[in-house]
């Protein structure tokens, strides 16, 4: 939502100046977490990525529903440990479904 619309809706809204240096540092930490799972992950901007976890699941004998859930939770946990930031994660057979799954929980 553009700031001017937010200000109309909430007149006493407080805008906090972003800390781009910290943001860049945390982004690099997140990238390292993602690269450990899929070195060829696709970055869709600073706050979104798409991974192919097929090889990771196969190599680690996690080719089951529980394994897919484990990998999703592992990614979330490692991002939180590295940055103290929460994240969402969806695992599915294609990017569109995975994006929808990331919104479910």
Task: Tell me briefly what this model is.
With 105 residues, the protein is mostly helical.
Overall description:
The chain has 105 residues and is mainly alpha-helical. The chain has five helices and two strands, in the order ααββααα. Strands 1-2 form a two-stranded antiparallel ribbon. The radius of gyration is 17 Å and the shape is elongated. The protein starts with a helix and ends with a helix. The mean pLDDT is 94.
Q: Give the oligomer, counting copies of the same chain as homo and different chains as hetero.
A: single chain
Number of helices: 5
For the largest sheet, list the strands in their spatial order. 1-2
| Low-pLDDT regions | none
How many strand elements? 2
The end-to-end distance, rounded to whole angstroms, is 23 Å
Sheet of most strands? 2 strands, antiparallel
- The overall average pLDDT, rounded, is 94
Order of helices and strands: HHEEHHH
Map the helices and strands.
Elements: H1 3-9, H2 20-37, E1 42-43, E2 49-50, H3 54-59, H4 65-83, H5 95-104
Antiparallel strand pairs: 1-2
Helix pairs in contact: 2-4
Descriptors for this entry?
single chain, 105 residues, mainly alpha
């Amino acid at each position: 939502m553009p700031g001017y619309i937010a200000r109309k809706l909430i007149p006493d809204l407080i805008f906090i100046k972003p800390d781009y240096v910290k943001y860049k540092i945390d982004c690099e930490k997140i990238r390292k977490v993602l690269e450990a799972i899929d070195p060829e992950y696709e970055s869709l901007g600073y706050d979104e990525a798409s991974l192919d976890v097929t090889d990771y699941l196969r190599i680690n004998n996690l080719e089951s529903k529980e394994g897919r859930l484990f990998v999703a939770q592992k990614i979330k946990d490692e991002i939180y440990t590295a940055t103290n930031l929460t994240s969402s994660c969806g695992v599915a057979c294609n990017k569109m479904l995975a994006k929808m799954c990331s919104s479910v929980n």
